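User: I'm new to structure prediction. If I give you an amino acid sequence, what do you actually give back? Let's try with this one:
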Amino acid sequence: MNVNMERENLKPKYEAFLKTAKGQEWKREWIARTGLEEDGDFGDYLYDFYPELLR
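Assistant: Good question. You get back a string of structure tokens that encode the predicted 3D arrangement of the chain. For your 55 residues, that looks like this:
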């Protein structure tokens, strides 16, 4: 499976993750870590949980 397809397959998992308590915690931690007022996006999720897909 190529990297782009793997990324696309992870989008539903990312959307579901954001609805969980752990996902909400990740968003708060991301804001605190970056100092930005916006929460992390799909690219940030990949960076934190699937960095091998960012090559």
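You can read the tokens as a compact description of the fold. Here is one thing that stands out. The chain has a mean pLDDT of 91.
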